[in-house]
Specification:
It is a single chain. By secondary structure, this protein is of the alpha+beta class. It contains 20 helices and 24 strands. β23 and β24 form a beta hairpin. It is flat.
Amino acid sequence: MAEEFNTDGMLDIYLFENEQLLEQLQDIVLEQKDADSFDEESINEIFRTMHTIKGSSGIMMFDDITAVSHKLEDVFYYLRESHPQNVPHLELVEHVLEVADFISGEMEKIKNGESADGDSKGIIAELDKFLDKIQNGGGGKKAEEIPQNVHKEPTQFYIAPVATSASHFFKIYITFFPDTDMVNVHAYKVVYALKEIAEDLLYSPEDIISDESAAETILNEGFRILLQAQNTEEEIRNIIGVGYDIKHVSVYECKAEEFLQGFDFGDQEDTPIIDLISSVEEIEAKTKPAQGEVKEPEKPAKPQIAPGDFVIKSKEPGKHKKLAKDKKGEKSTFISVNVSKMDQLMDLIGELVISESVVLQNPDLKVPGLNLANFNKAAAQMSKISTDLQNVIMSMRMVPLTNTFQKMNRIVFDVSRKLGKDIEFEMIGETTEVDKNIIEHISDPLMHLVRNAVDHGIETQKEREKSGKTDKGKVVLAAKNESGKVWITVEDNGKGLDREKILAKAKKQGLLDEGKPESAYSDKEIYQFITYPGFSTNEQVTEYSGRGVGMDVVVQNIQSIGGSLEIDSTPGYGSIMSLKIPLTLAIIDGIVLETGESSFVLETGAIKSFIRVNEDMMIHEPNGEEYIMIREECLPVIRLGEWYGLHDYQTSVENGMMLILEVDNEKICLFVDKLVGQQEIVVKPIPSYVKKVKGLSGCTQLGDGSIALILDPVGLIE
C-alpha cells in the first residue's frame, strides 16, 4: 500500500513545509552562532526539524535529502542523549548550514521541475568524521552506551507483532485542526515516523493515501493508532510532536489483551460516552441531584476502562457541539496561496481603479442640468469600497523583511569566516513590511552592500588593533517606514571611505567635470563615484570584490523601482549606505499634468511645491541652460515640452506652472502647461518594443481612456 500511492498532489505541501522548517532552522543556528554551544531547547528543535524533513523526504522518495537529514539527525541525537563536552561549536554551525544549503538547493531543483540529483556522500562523510570526533573526545557517555538512531527503509506499514518482555502497548488518538489541508498526508507522516520504532502498528482509517474520503474521516472522527513498541509514552509523544497541524495527541498505555481488541474498543454499554451535544452547564446539571431528591448510594465502581476505550456520541443534524474550549478565543488561521493568483488579484484591482476613474470622469456626466445627487452618493460609496478593497489587497502583498535580513546574516557569517574577520551582525526593524515585488528587487542590492561592508569596510583584527579599535567589527542592517517610503541602511564601524583615493581614481578614469576644481566636490558627490560602472579602489581582486562590478548594479536595481542610494562615511569610523525605496510598485498617488497635447503623471511624494513665476525671475545662460531664483536658491529649470520635443506647448513661464521636485536633497524646477488633478495611478510597464527613454518609469490609463506617461524624477534630475 505504501509504495503505490501518487506523490504529485503532495509535492507542493512538501516544499512549502520544508521551506518553513529550513528558515526556522537557519534562524536558530544564526541566533546562537556566537554562543559557546547550542542550548538544550535548540538541540531538540534542530533534531525534530531534521527528523521531520527526513520523514517527509522519505515519503516523497528523495533519497539524498533523506540520507543527509538523517545523518545530521544522528549528530543531534547524540548531542541530545549524551551531552558531550568540548563540542567545536562553530564547526557544528557550519555543518548545519551546509546541510541546510544542500537541502535548499535540492528543493530548488524540484521546484524547477528538475531531478534532485545532488550527491550527499561528501556531506555525510564530513558529518561522520565530526560525529566520530565528538564521540571519542566528548565528556559525556560513551558512544556505545547511546542507542543508535537507526533509519529503516519503508517496506510496509503493518509490521508483524513480535512481543517481548520489554514490549509496551499503546492506543493513540490524534485530532487535527479543522482548517488543516491534506490532513491524510499529515496522518501518513505520523505513521511514517512511528514505524521506525514499531513492533506492531495498525491505524484507522487504514487507506489514508489513495482513499480521498480518508481526510474527511480523520478530520471528523480523529486518527486512531494501535502501537506495540519498546518505548515510553513520553518518547512516543516526542516522535509524534504537536505542530500547526496536530491539535491534540492522546497516548495511553494498555494491556496486551486490550490491544488485541483492535479498534473495537469493547461493549458500547460498558464504554463511557462523551456527550458532544449538551453544554458544559447542562452536563454539570445532570450530575447534581434535584432539590429534595435523595441521592442513591454509590454503586461499586466498575473495573476501570483503559483510557482510549470510548465512543463518541453522534451529533444530531443542526445542533452545535458545545465544549469548554468554545469559551476560548478563536485560533488565527492561515492559508497559503499561489503568488501568481495574488498578482492576478492585484492586476484586477488595478483595472477596477481605472474603471472607477472612467465612470466618475465620464463626459456624459458634464451635460448641463443633470441632477447627480443620487449618483454622487452612490459614487462616493463605490469609491470607499474600492479604496478599502485596495488597502486589503495591498496589505496581503506586504511581507516583512525578516527573511531577507536573515539571508544577510548568513552572508556576514560566511564571508567573515572566510576572510578571518570577527564581525557582529545586528538587525533593527526587520519586521518592517514591504511589497513582495519590492523585496525581490532589493535582495541582490542588499547582498552587495553587506558584502562590501564586510570586505571593504571592516578591517582585520590586526588592523583594528593597530588603529586603536578595541571593539569587534560590526555591521548593522536597519529598516524603517517614513513618509510613504522605506529606508534601509547598511552601517559598519570599519575604516570608512577614503575621499582622496576615490578622487584620484575618478580623475584617472576621467569622471571629473572639466573646469570644476577638486575642492568644489562635496564628500557625498565623491562617494557617488563608487557607484559608477568599473569603478573600484580595491587593489587586490578577491572572491568578493575588486572587479569594479556590484555597486553600479545596486544603483540600477534600486532606480528601476523608483528608489535611490545615499552614501555617507566618516574616515576611520565607518560608512552608512542608505536605500530609499517605495512601499509598493502597484498603485501610487499621482498628479496628472499636461504639456502640449500630452499627459504625464508625477508621484505626489516627489513634488515639493507648485509655484507661479514671472519672466524676470528666470536666469538664461549662454549655453541655453535656465535657472530660477526661489527663496534664495538657484534651481535648474527643465521645460518638459523641450525635454521630449513636444509640439504646441507653452513657452512663456507666466502662462504655465512650475513644479519643484526634490530627490536625495537635489532640487529642480519642472515647467509644464497646466495641472489636471490628483488621482490614484495604476502603474503599468512601458511595452518592451518602446525604446527606454530617460525620465520615464512607466505608463497608466486615465479616466477618459487616454494614456499618460509616468515621469521618473531621478531620471530628470540626473
